[in-house]
Write a structure and sequence with these properties.
By secondary structure, this protein is of the alpha/beta class. Helices cover 46% and strands 20% of the residues. The protein contains 16 helices and twelve strands. A five-stranded mixed β-sheet has the order 10-9-8-11-12, with helices on both faces. Strands 1-2-5-4 form a four-stranded mixed β-sheet. A hairpin with a 6-residue loop joins strand 9 and strand 10. The protein binds zinc ion.
């Protein structure tokens, strides 16, 4: 009796009543089974037109998994009716606690998905003695609901980013909303081609795209082309995070080439374990690392020249005015092009070719948070790292929407966890 009272408190269905509750074996484990019956004289809902229709027949009893109660798995047991709908034909009735052939109730799916946001999917499955696949389906349900019910109005600042996924050269393109207070993942899709970003703009819609004021992106040509075409009114900014990332990649390339050269010449590899020293900013180095870096600086190495060129470029971001910054940029590019460092020259040429977009950073100063894209990028990477077990891109996309999408959830008057 007590369980029924509690159930009616947390989840009451208008046209159904809770019947008897018993403990019995389900899949070899003791579980609570809660019978549900239609309220007397109630008529079932047609799942297609949503109208109340007369009963055609009744199907065998089915179990619907509900939230665990005192660590017992619990199930609703109900024999669905079929409606005889003059418009839609004979259909299985729509139920307020579950959908289609899915065995989980809506409440249980929301419950699992909430936990899957805090823990990894594997941990969630382990704790609630269910499978990884069940957790996946629960998250997918919540994400599908959220995407269908979210509000996309008021998006005026977006960031376009890409992350490497799995092994090899596979990418996901991510589009974030960067407005202060509503930073979230708006969209993600496989690859990083013009076609990819065109899909975003297509799904986002013309009217909304016309509202965009700022777009942060990197120097990836297919993106730049699509942004100019689909949001011509927006200020496209090559932001600090993306530009400095290109520097990081260039330094890494120079170092790898140099190590190869050492090996070919049979020289000692002084750069061994030096990768992180070169990628880090000086202020982030420990004392020991700083000493080691000082030693490296004494050697006349290409990697070190690259490192110094990048450090020198950091001054660029301190300028207040676009014209002064532009002069500094020209000067830096000239110096970089005089070196033998091919990867760094590549960065310099890219900066020169996209100078107006790089300088847009200063035109938007004060209106855009510099760390916004980087913050979202870090969160996306963290989600991927926690996501071992994600074998497909589709899975990964769902996980990213789930953790970064700030999606609305189905509403319940009781919050279970
Ligand atoms: Zn119907």
């Amino acid at each position: 009796m007590l369980i029924k009272t509690l159930l009616n408190k947390v989840e009451r269905f208008k046209s159904f009543v809770y019947g008897s509750v018993c403990v019995q074996l389900v899949d070899g484990m003791e579980a609570l089974v809660i019978d549900i019956e239609p309220r007397r004289n109630s008529r079932p809902l047609c799942p297609e037109c949503g109208k109340r229709r007369s009963v055609y027949d009744r199907q065998p009893q089915r179990l619907f998994e509900y939230l665990p109660i005192w660590t017992f798995k619990s199930f609703y047991r109900y024999a669905p009716r079929r409606v005889d709908c003059p418009t839609c034909g004979v259909k299985v009735e729509a139920l307020p606690w579950g959908y289609g052939k899915e065995r989980m109730t809506f409440s249980y799916q929301v419950f699992l998905a909430r936990w899957a946001k805090r823990l990894s999917w594997k941990e969630t499955a382990d704790i609630f003695e269910t499978s990884w696949d069940t957790v996946f389906r629960a998250v997918q349900f919540v994400v599908d609901y959220g995407l269908a019910h979210r509000d996309l109005d008021g998006v005026t600042e977006i960031g376009v980013d890409e992350i490497k996924v799995f092994k090899g050269h596979k990418y996901l393109t991510l589009v974030y909303q960067l407005n202060a207070g509503v930073r979230r993942l708006l969209w993600c899709g496989p690859e990083r081609r013009a076609k990819t970003l065109l899909r975003f703009f297509h799904e986002f819609g013309k009217e909304r795209s016309a509202q965009i004021k700022f777009v942060c992106s990197d120097m990836w040509a297919p993106y730049l082309k699509v942004i100019a075409k689909k949001a011509p009114q927006a200020l496209n900014i090559l932001d600090r995070f993306h530009i400095m990332r290109a520097f990081g990649e260039a330094i890494d390339q120079i170092r790898r080439d140099e190590v190869k050269q050492f090996k070919a010449n049979g020289q000692e590899n002084v750069l061994e374990r030096g990768r992180w020293l070169l990628l880090k900013r000086p202020e982030n180095l420990s004392e020991k690392q700083t000493i080691r870096l000082d030693e490296l600086l004494k050697l006349n190495l290409a990697s070190i020249k690259g490192y110094l060129l990048r450090e020198d470029f950091q001054r660029f971001w301190d300028y207040q005015r676009a014209d002064f910054a532009g002069k500094f940029l020209d000067n830096w590019v000239t110096r970089a092009l005089q070196t033998e460092l091919e990867p760094m020259k590549k960065v310099a040429r890219m900066l020169r070719n996209h100078k107006p977009l790089v300088l847009n950073w200063f035109r938007a100063k004060g209106q855009l948070s510099s760390g916004a894209v980087e913050g979202m990028n870090l969160k996306a990477k963290l989600t991927m790292r926690k996501a071992y077990g994600f074998k497909t891109l589709k899975c990964l996309e769902i996980a990213l929407y789930h953790t970064l999408g700030a999606l609305p959830e189905p509403e319940y008057h009781h919050r279970f966890c």
